[in-house]
Each structure stands twice: as structure tokens, then as C-alpha cells.
Amino acid sequence: MPTHVRRRFRLPPNYESPAHARAAVREVLAEAGLAELLDEALLLTTELATNGVVHAGTDIEVDVVVDDAGVTVTVTDFDGSSIEPMSQPDYLSEGGRGLVLVDQFASAWGTTHGEGSKGVWFRLDRSPVHGQQGHISETSSLPAAPPQRLDWLSFLSETSELLAQSLDAELTLALIPQLVVPRLGDWCAVHTADQSGTLILATWLHRDEPSLPLLRDQLREAAPRLHDVVATRAPVMLPRPCEGVTVPLVARDQLLGTLSVGRHIDHLHNPDEVAVITDLARRAALAIENARIHAERESIAQAFQRALLPAALPRTPGIDLGAEYVPAGAGTEVGGDFYDVMPIEHNRWLLSIGDVCGKGARAAALTGLVRDVVRVLVRDGCPLPRAMRLLNTTMLERGEGKHCTLAAGLVSKHPDGRVEVRLCLAGHDKPVLLRANGETELVGLGGTAVGLLDSVYTPLATVLLSPGDVLVFYTDGITERRHGEELYGQDRLCHELSGLVGLSASAVAARLRAAALAFSAEVPRDDIALLVLRNPLSAQVPSGGMTALPSSLSPSDHSVPAPGVDTPPVAKRIPSSRTQHGDTTVDEYAWLLNK
To answer: How far, in Å, CA of 317 to CA of 402, rounded?
Structure first.
């Protein structure tokens, strides 16, 4: 028997919320053993969540309740306006706010009203009771819809779900003709509009593939009719030889292009089908616009993130450096994780890595503040513990209630070949020291995070790296990465690191990143930052002075391996969209498969 389960959650008014609502309903029904209700529940949840986001433009609250007999889902928005009149609903649009579908598929449904909020709920029973009396009052106000129109409603809802799954504009454009052909026509074409209104053929599909070149020529000849759509923003019928209809793609009052659909003259579109195509175009336009907004936000976030990370790691005599960074989620928000490398004077460098609480513009501003304050203080000769105290005072004076964990180390090269790191930890995880013999240990002395208390305790520790030793700094995006209830943890990190003796710093960073990502199929919920310091063997010390190492250099330029040292082969570079530093000398996924 199903288990009594309840989930209640709140979602923001954005394009991802209907997908999150579907995922939650799917999870609850799977947990309760009600798979037979899944299709109807997802269909109705999609409609209500989409309507709440699009029409109300507010947060939505989704409440899913499962009992022995079925499931009840309530979607509440906080617009405060009333449900639109339902006396004569338009079956082929969302004028009825999705209630036509609810009425046809739900065992029961109704509305709720609160101060500044309204909701629609539906009930799906495992065994519907036929001929039940006393149905919800809203039902009687809806005339029965013809079966063919119900099919179109179901088609449009399924189309919305498919379009909502993509946040890639090019993929969304390519998907639209696949949804149309052959259900609504023999061919379909999508034109996009530039800022001047000029139409550009983006994608086209014909059920008879050899006819694609001819279709392209016919669309070129029909250009004047297509531009009539741009001018009027109304559907236009296409004459022979196209024999179809073109409708505008409009989202948020912005013309994005046109959608053209056609088929043989013996089967011209009827008014209902034109209405379906128009509704499909509206949904497709919203999906395209959402994908473009997502891409724009992602680009802005990446620009912010690049500004907070070193554009290049220094190539220095006597030390080998590597770094990796993986943003959390979809990459549309700036994270609070950062790392930094700064030369101070001859044979001395400042290494730092930190995690500022929060995300977005405020976290980015605070991240820049933390990095720059530490840089200025250390460059002026301030000891690390005092620099931490002054940074703490600065953060408290801002009064934002934000805090930061930070690990900073002053690195110097001894004449005997050892590397000294004077290490200061402000609430940050202890770095891992990998010895040349494969042994690992956590090093440093624990301290207080900055920005929390009036005074901080950040004792100084000294770590010595012999030739071949590696020191790995990291943020908790690695150790707190989850696979179900299991954490990646420091023990697994140490175990993974113990097998990387002899590799360059960039290879160590890349493999640790790959192992952490492979630990869970989920997109990272927190940023992952890695900063690796290696004391190379004497033959690996680069000659000459300090030079910047651009990330565009080939992997072989990042380190000079000593003769006889087992280094991984140079393989494909990691795409820049996956990491800020492309200084990877291994194919991390091939390595994991062969491990």
C-alpha cells in the first residue's frame, strides 16, 4: 500500500520552476508507489505551475500530499487576483489558466483563496469513482470539450514540458520542427529576427528529407509574406508552392522570429489547427527567450567569475602550480569560492583560497574585497595572522552579516631545494600534504572564520615540502559533495591523492576535480575550487624568471617533467566552459574509466 507522504516547497517565478515541480511530484509518487498516476499528475502539475509563473509572475508554492487512495497537488501563487472567469473557456489557449485540463483529467479539483494568495488543487484517485455526486462547483461551469480538442490540449502541455527541459537556445530552435512534423504539417521552418527585424532561416524540417533544398528555396521566395508577419505580428497564410501558415514568435512583447508550417493543399489547416500552431508558437517563443536569458546570465556570471580568479597562474622558478574551478549548478550565478596566487618578492609568493558565504553579486563583491584586502596587506609586509584580524574588522564594518573561510600561505623556496609554506587558516579546511612516497596528511592549525566574531584566532603553522611533495588547497565543494547520503569527505580526498605521486600540479588538480565530479551524477550544488602547489624535482625547475602562464597555452607548456617520471599522456583539453583554467594534461574521464 502507498505510504502517506507530503512535500511542500516554494519555487521562484522563473522558467526552471515547472521542471522542479514536476521532478518533486515524480519523486513523491515514486516513493509512495503510485506510478500509475504519474502521467496525469505531471501533466496537470506542468499546467498549473506554468500558469502560476507566467500569469501571476510570483513565487509559487507546491504542496503534494499522498495517501492510500491517491494524490492531491496544490499550486498556490501570491498575486492576489482572482481566477479568470470560466464561463466560456478557450480550449486552445491558456485563457482558462489550465483548468480545462484539470477538469478533464482530475478526479476532483478546486480553488483556495488566502490573503494575497490563490491556489488551484487537483485530486487523482487510484480507482476513480464513477458517477460520483457533489463534484467541485467549478466543474459544472465548464462545458465538455470535444475529444479532438482535448488531444490538442494534451499535445500542447506535452510540448511545453519538452520545451521547458532545454536551456540551450540552439537546441530549442532545433526541437521546434521536430514537435510540429508530422503532427501539424509536412514541413516546418523557424526564422529568427535580428534587431532590425530581418528574418534569418534558423532551422527547417521536411518529412521528405530530399525536399529540404526545395523547401529552402520556396521559403526564400515567400520572404515578403514572412515580413508581413513581422509588420503585423499576426498569422499569415502562405500561398503556393508553400501552402501553409506563418505565425509570429513573440515573447514578453518582443518579436523573436516566425514559425511556418505547411502541408499539401488537399489537407490545409483548419481554424483549430491554426490556433494550435499559434499557441505552440507562443510557448516556443517563451522557451527561446528563456534560453537566451539563461545564456546571457551565464555569460555575465562567467565574466564576473573570471574577474575574481587569476587570468593566468605564474610560471615560477622552483614551484609548480595548478588550479581548477567548477561553478555550482547551471553556472548562472557567481559563486563565493576563489583562489589567488600573487608574487611578493623574489622567490616568495602568496597563495590563498577561500569560500565566501552566499552567491550572486553581493557574494562576488565580498569575494573581491577579501582577495584585495589580503593582497594589499601582505604586499605591505603585514604578517598573515594580523592580516586576518584586519580583514575580519573590515568585514564586520560592512555590516552585511557575511563571513568567509580562508586559507593563506606565504611560499618561499629554500636553497636546499625545499619549499616552505607559512600557513594561516581562518575557519578553512586543512590542506592535504602528499609526500613523494604516497603518504598523505592534513596540515595546518584550525582557526576562526572571518566576519563572524569581533576577534579571530588564526595561528600560523609552517609546512615544509621536500622535492616531489604536493600541497592541495580546496574548498568544501569537494568534501561536501554528496552521493545520496554519503559525503565525498577528506578521507576519500586523501585516498585519491595518494595515487597521484609524480604528476604535475595541473594534472593533480584535474584528476581530483574529475574524481569529485564522478562521485555523484548530480550537478554540483556548491562551487569547487582547487589550488595545487608542488615542489618539483630539481630537473623540473623551470629556468629564468617569473612569467605569466596563460591558460591558452598547450598542456605540454605547463610543466617540464623530469626524466623517468611517470606522467600521464597529453590528451584532449578540457573545454573552457567546464573550467576557468584549461591547464589539464590528462583526459580525466578516460583516466577514471581505466583506474
So the answer is: 38
Pairwise CA distance, residues 285 & 258, whole Å? 9
Query: Per-residue pLDDT tens for 181-215?
Result: 988 999 999 999 988 888 999 999 999 999 999 99
| SS3 state at 68 | coil
Instruction: Return the pLDDT at 383.
Output: 95
Domain made up of 166-301: CATH architecture: 2-Layer Sandwich (3.30)
Closest of 502, 511, 409, 407 to residue 450, by C-alpha: 407
49 sits in which H/E element: helix 38-51
- What are the tens digits of pLDDT across the range 40-81? 888 788 888 877 776 666 789 999 999 988 999 999 988 644
Domain with CATH 3.30.565.10 in the chain: 5-145
Q: Is 365 helix (H, G, I), strand (E, B) or coil?
A: helix
Task: Give the DSSP letter of residue 55.
Answer: I
**What CA–CA distance (Å, rounded) separates 291 from 361?**
21
Q: Which residues of 8-39 are buried (b: 16+ CB within 10 A; e: fewer)?
A: eeebebebbbbbbbbebbeebbeebebeebbe
Q: How far apart are CA 321 and CA 533, in angstroms?
A: 5
Q: Average pLDDT for residues 111-128, to the nearest whole number?
A: 84
3-state secondary structure of 542: coil
Q: Are 203 and 177 in contact (CB under 8 A)?
A: yes
**Residue 118, number of CB atoms within 10 A of its CB:** 19
Cis bond leading into 213, ω under 30°? no
Residue 517 CA to residue 592 CA, distance in Å, equals 11
Structure letter (DSSP) for residue 252: T
Three cell numbers at 512? 581530483
Q: Indicate the CATH number for domain 316-540+559-594.
A: 3.60.40.10
For cell 558565504, the residue is 357
Confirm if 52 and 77 have CB atoms less than 8 A apart.
yes
Per-residue model confidence (pLDDT) at position 90:
40
| 223-232, 324-333, 452-461: range with highest mean pLDDT | 452-461
Residue 290 pLDDT: 83
Question: In terms of C-beta density within 10 A (0-12 exposed, 13-18 middle, 19 or more buried), how is residue 165 classed?
Answer: middle
pLDDT in tens, 237-247: 888 887 889 99
pLDDT at res. 331: 63
Give the class (CATH, top level) of 5-145. alpha beta
Indicate the Cα dihedral angle 324, 328, 334, 338, nearest 10°: -30
pTM flag (> 0.85): no
Compute the C-alpha angle 462/465/468, nearest 5°.
170
In this predicted structure, which of 139-143, 281-285, 343-347 has the lowest mean pLDDT?
139-143
Match 613523494 to its residue by C-alpha cell. Answer: 436
- From residue 481, alpha-carbon distances to 123, 265, 360, 487 in Å are 37, 58, 21, 6
Burial class for 260, CB neighbours closer than 10 Å (0-12, 13-18, 19+):
buried
Residue-level pLDDT at 57: 66
- Helix, strand, coil % over all residues of the chain, rounded to 5: 35, 25, 35
Residues of CATH 3.30.450.40 domain(s) within the chain? Answer: 166-301
Q: Are 338 and 371 in contact (CB under 8 A)?
A: yes
**Residues 109, 146: contact at Cβ < 8 Å?**
no
Tell me which of 304-308, 429-433, 491-495, 542-546 is least confident: 542-546
Three-state secondary-structure class, residue 112: strand
